[in-house]
Amino acid sequence: MTNLTKNFNSSEFACRCCGKEVFLMSHVLKLQTLRDFFNKQVTITSGYRCKNHNKNVGGVSYSQHPLGTATDIKVKDISPDKVADYAEKHFDGVGRYDGFTHLDSRGYSAKWDNRTK
Questions:
Q1: Can you name the CATH fold of 10-113?
Q2: Which of 59, 66, 76, 78 is the most exposed place for a label (fewest CB within 10 A)?
């Protein structure tokens, strides 16, 4: 485990099945900026996923998670919708879900809404 920023460490981005740590540092720095903006705890629910783990959790074949450029997050006491509103100005990929927000740094714009409510 290595501290990457004042609030994030490398193990938070590790694959849940194999423990491999892959991340794009510029993406981590954007996450820190988001954390500073909301001044709330940010929990990474999914960071890097090896291809096997991505398949097992139903991730799409073109997912940014196996590239280490994506995170799914929750911000304490802030709705995923409010997080997405902020993130759309700072991240390339923003996915809206009922319980979390997907953020990625893919190099081109991608926005989607998978909320069911």
A1: Muramoyl-pentapeptide Carboxypeptidase; domain 2 (3.30.1380)
A2: 76
Give residue limits of the domains in the chain: 10-113
DSSP three-state, residue 56: helix
N- to C-terminal Cα distance for the chain? Answer: 37
DSSP state of 17: T
| Contact yes or no for 87/34 (Cβ under 8 A) | yes
- pLDDT tens for residues 10-55? 999 999 999 999 999 999 999 999 999 999 999 999 999 999 999 9
Rounded to 5°, the CA angle 82-117-111 comes to 50
How many angstroms separate the Cα of 57 from the Cα of each of 51, 53, 108, 114?
10, 6, 24, 16
Give the sign of the dihedral formed by CA 47, CA 50, CA 53, CA 58.
positive
How many residues would you count in the chain?
Answer: 117
